[in-house]
Amino acid sequence: MLLKDKVAVVTAGASGMGRAGSELFAANGAHVYVVDVNKEAADEVVAGITATGGSATAAVVNVRDLDALQDLAATVTSEHGRVDVLYNNVGIPGAAGLDMTVEEWDTGLEINARSSFFLSGYLTDALKAADNASVIFTSSTSGLVGSPFSPMYSFTKGGIIALVRSMALAMAPDGIRVNAIAPGSVETPGLPAFFRASPEETEKRKAAFFAQIPLGRAAQPEEIAQVALFLASDMSSFVTGVTIPVDGGLTAK
Questions:
Q1: What are the residues facing 219 on neighbouring strands?
Q2: How many CA atoms lie within 13 A of 126 on its CB side?
Q3: What sections of the chain are H helices per DSSP?
């Protein structure tokens, strides 16, 4: 019970890595706000958590809506007075290449970067009210090594790494730790979107890409969640300002 009686907020918390994080945080004693744009999925995750004795609340939020994020922060603060863990997990592959519309650019930037920046700001007082609070961002190996196929995605994920270092320094005097996880390929419902091909071609591209990973496979969402749990808990009480690749050795080459 590494998060016993703690309050955690997980964005995109109803699928993939976010769902695994929500469920693991709850299994370790946290009350989890499962934040997602998909109400049915969020309700399903909360029902599963409560059925196994955990505690969770569904929060249906479009993270592009800053007013909605501010309302979320106000609600959590009003109900609990503090936030111990903020897991800024939300993100999308976004448009590929360099030829994109302004709307596609804005969508990727707002979901992958702006939402997490502003939610962290809206919850700063609640994080200060906690003891050894932890803020976790989901970056990507594409933010570490770049992607020839999705420059905008790399831009947003690389920006998160710089943001984490700066926020860690800014928040350290208040005892708030800020770190990021940089997953490689993860077997989630959103993974096929990165390959942008037919189902048959996607499977071929996945196999070719996985062959480049030293451990020879993609990660499972639960493997990312275990690292998030480490960063959320007091096991990482002296860890701040770092980005941890969870990529099967991809960036070690």
A1: 186
A2: 26
A3: 16-27, 39-51, 66-80, 102-109, 115-122, 124-128, 142-145, 151-171, 192-195, 199-210, 221-232
Average pLDDT, the chain: 93
pLDDT of residue 190: 63
Catalytic residue among 33, 87, 122, 153: 153
DSSP output for 93-157: ----SS---HHHHHHHHIIIIIHHHHHHHHTHHHHHTSSS-EEEEE--THHHH--SS-HHHHHHH
Place of tokens 């200060």: 128
**Is 153 known to be catalytic?**
yes
pTM: 0.93
Amino acid at 146: G
Q: Which amino acid is at 143?
A: G
Per DSSP, the three-state class of 63 is coil
Q: How far apart are CA 135 and CA 89, in angstroms?
A: 10
Which tens digits make up the pLDDT trace of 10-57?
999 999 999 999 999 999 999 999 999 999 999 999 999 999 999 999
Tens of pLDDT, residues 184-242:
888 876 656 665 666 777 677 777 778 889 998 889 999 999 999 999 999 999 999 99
Contact (Cβ atoms closer than 8 angstroms) between residue 91 and residue 182: no
> Is residue 84 classed as helix, strand or coil in its secondary structure?
coil
Distance (Å) of CA 248 to CA 132, 138, 181, 190, 215: 30, 16, 13, 19, 5
Within 8 A by CB and 6+ apart from 71, the residues are: none
